[in-house]
Specification:
The chain has one domain: Response regulator (Rossmann fold, 3-Layer(aba) Sandwich), CATH 3.40.50. The chain is built from six helices and four strands; from the N terminus they run H-E-H-E-H-H-E-H-E-H. Helix 2 links the parallel strand 1 and strand 2. The N terminus is likely disordered.
Length: 171
């Protein structure tokens, strides 16, 4: 029977191989923690209230150094973002690209979002069961009835919402 002349080397190699797996997992977890989590703002058409909310949320999150990023989505999206949103939002310091269009809310986004905020709309029962956190803002005026009133209500909701967000995802 031949004896292994290198038992220590193999033991060390096995130990390193086993310990590398948790280290790789920790590295992936820390990378994921450094990526911003998504907040989805949804409204019926994805062309007004959610657009305003996402823009203001992203500004607030950046100013506060929060690890979140917002997107605007529609339950049944319109084809375009109307001028009654594009023009007044510019005075608040935001641009909406000429090619930017409303985007449909997907189940994948619902599952992946840290929170889904429904502004004057509702998720289906099935979609609601997919969310980690869901909020409903039912008192936001329509933007076509007056941008300033809608914006002010959205910003008031955002101030409260942002103040309750954890500064580190998962905490």
């Amino acid at each position: 029977m031949m004896k292994n002349k290198w038992p220590g080397v193999f033991a060390i190699a096995a130990l390193l191989a086993c310990s590398a797996v948790p280290l790789a997992g920790c590295q992936r977890a820390s990378q994921a923690a450094s990526e911003p989590q998504t907040i989805v703002f949804a409204c019926p058409y994805g062309s007004a209230k959610s657009v305003v909310a996402a823009r203001f949320f992203n500004r607030m999150a950046a100013e506060r150094g929060l690890p979140y990023r917002a997107v605007a989505r529609g339950i049944t999206p319109e084809r375009t973002i109307p001028s009654y949103v594009r023009e007044p939002i510019r005075t608040d310091g935001f641009e909406i690209g000429v090619d930017e269009k409303p985007v449909a809310l997907t189940d994948l986004e619902i599952r992946g979002a840290a929170a889904v905020v429904c502004i004057k709309c509702q998720l289906s029962e099935e979609q609601s069961s997919m969310t980690r956190q869901s909020l409903a803002w039912t008192d936001v005026p329509d933007v076509d009835a007056g941008y300033a009133a809608a914006r002010d209500k959205i910003v008031a909701h955002l101030n409260e919402f942002v103040s309750r967000l954890p500064t580190k995802p998962g905490s």
